[in-house]
Design goal:
Elements: H1 3-19, H2 35-38, H3 50-58, H4 68-133, E1 134-136, E2 142-144, E3 159-161, H5 167-172, H6 174-184, H7 190-196, E4 201-209, H8 210-220, H9 224-227, E5 237-242, E6 245-250, E7 261-263, E8 266-269, E9 276-284, E10 287-302, E11 306-307, E12 313-314, E13 316-323, E14 331-332
Parallel strand pairs: 3-5
Antiparallel strand pairs: 1-2, 4-13, 5-6, 6-9, 7-8, 8-10, 9-10, 9-14, 10-13, 11-12
C-alpha cells in the first residue's frame, strides 16, 4: 500500500472512531471480557448476564471459580429462603382456613338471627293473644278473662289483713251482729250447748273491709261474679294477719260450691251457715303453744255503711270465729283477743 493510501485509511479509521462511543460508555455486554470473566460466560456469548455477573462478583479473589465456602453459603441462603417460603405458605393456608371458619360462623349467626326474629314474632303474637284471654287479679294472679279461673300453677302465699273489733262498732252493728250470730253460731247458746252437749265456741273475732272480703272470696272462688259459681279452684290458702297473730284459711275443694248469699241486709262470705276452714296456733295465758287448732270463720258484710262518732263511714265486715277444743289446751286468738274456753 502506498503512503497516500495508508494516510487515507487512517483518516477513515479516526473518523469512525469519533462516531463510536468510548469503551467506558459501551454497554456491559459489548465490553471485552477479561480472562477471568470469560470463565463465567457459560455459552461464550461475549458478555455476562445478571446471574453470571452475580457469580463473578462473588469471586472476590479472582480465581475464575467459586470455592466450597461460597457455594455452601449460597445453598444455605437458598435453604433458609425455602423455609421462609414454606412458613409463609403455611400461614396463608391457616388464614384461609380461619377465613373459611369465619364465613361459616357468620352464616350460622345469620341463620340464628333469622330464627330468633321469627321466635320473637311468634312470642309477640302469643303474648297478644294471651293478653286478650287473661287478666291480672287484685292479688296479682293471672286468671282467665272469661271465666276468672286462676291460671297460675305455683302455690301463692297471700297475706290478708284483718282488724280487731272496736266497742263502738259492736254497739252500732248490734242488730247485724245478732243476725250473723244466729246463722253462724246456732248451737252455742248455753241452752243449746247443754242440749247438744256441745263445746263449740263461736264469737266475733275481728273485722275486714267489705272490698277486701269480696276480693278474698274471689281469690278462693274465681268466676263467681260472671258465672254465679266457682268455675275452678283458686289459691289453696291465704294467711291472715291481725296485730301480729297469724292464721291460715284454706280454699280449693274445701270451699263451699255455692256463691255468697244475702240476708237481713248483709252478704255472707263464703256462704250462710258455713265458713272458711282454717288453722291457727293456740295461746294459753298469753303464751303461744306448739299446737295447731282447726277452726272456721264466716264474714258477714252489711249492705250499708254506718257512721262512726268521728264522722267516717265504716263498711267493715264482721268475722265470726267458730272452733271446738280438741287436744290443744288453749284458745284460738285470731286478733290477740282470746275466745273463752271451757277446755
Amino acid at each position: 500500500m502506498s503512503t497516500e493510501e495508508e494516510t487515507t485509511a487512517k483518516s477513515v479509521s479516526i473518523a469512525e472512531d469519533a462516531t463510536q462511543p468510548t469503551a467506558a460508555k459501551k454497554p456491559l455486554e459489548m465490553r471485552r471480557l477479561s480472562t477471568i470473566s470469560r470463565r463465567y460466560d457459560r455459552d461464550g456469548k461475549g458478555y455476562l448476564d445478571e446471574t453470571e455477573q452475580a457469580l463473578r462478583r462473588m469471586d472476590t479473589q479472582n480465581q475464575g471459580f467459586l470455592g466450597m465456602d461460597k457455594i455452601y453459603g449460597i445453598v444455605e441462603e437458598l435453604h433458609a429462603q425455602e423455609q421462609r417460603n414454606s412458613a409463609l405458605i403455611e400461614d396463608l393456608r391457616t388464614e384461609a382456613k380461619a377465613n373459611s371458619s369465619l364465613r361459616k360462623g357468620i352464616f350460622l349467626l345469620c341463620v340464628f338471627t333469622v330464627f330468633l326474629t321469627i321466635s320473637n314474632i311468634g312470642t309477640s303474637l302469643a303474648a297478644a293473644r294471651l293478653a286478650k284471654d287473661t287478666q291480672v287479679s287484685y292479688y296479682n294472679d293471672l286468671q282467665s278473662s272469661e271465666s276468672g279461673v286462676r291460671l297460675g300453677t305455683t302455690p301463692k302465699d297471700v297475706m290478708v289483713q284483718m282488724n280487731p273489733v272496736s266497742e263502738e262498732l259492736r254497739m252500732r252493728r248490734s242488730r247485724h251482729l245478732q243476725a250473723a250470730s244466729d246463722v253462724m253460731c246456732p248451737n252455742v247458746t248455753a241452752a243449746n250447748a247443754a242440749i247438744h252437749n256441745s263445746t263449740i265456741h263461736c264469737e266475733l273475732s275481728g273485722t275486714m273491709g267489705s272490698a277486701e272480703a269480696a276480693r278474698l272470696y274471689e281469690l278462693f272462688c274465681p268466676g263467681y261474679k260472671t258465672s254465679g259459681y266457682c268455675t275452678g279452684n283458686g289459691v289453696s290458702k291465704i294467711n291472715l294477719n291481725c296485730q301480729g297473730h297469724l292464721s291460715t284459711l284454706f280454699g280449693g275443694s274445701q270451699l263451699p260450691p255455692t256463691p255468697p248469699v244475702s240476708f237481713d241486709g248483709m252478704t255472707a262470705y263464703p256462704t250462710s251457715g258455713k265458713g272458711y276452714v282454717g288453722e291457727a296456733a293456740v295461746f294459753l295465758f298469753g303464751r303461744l303453744l306448739p299446737c295447731i287448732q282447726e277452726f272456721s270463720v264466716g264474714l258477714y258484710c252489711p249492705d250499708e255503711p254506718v257512721v262512726m262518732d268521728s264522722g267516717e263511714l265504716n263498711d267493715d265486715c264482721m268475722m265470726f270465729l267458730s272452733w271446738e277444743p280438741g287436744t290443744c289446751l288453749g284458745t284460738v286468738e285470731l286478733c290477740g283477743e282470746p275466745s273463752d274456753s271451757s277446755v
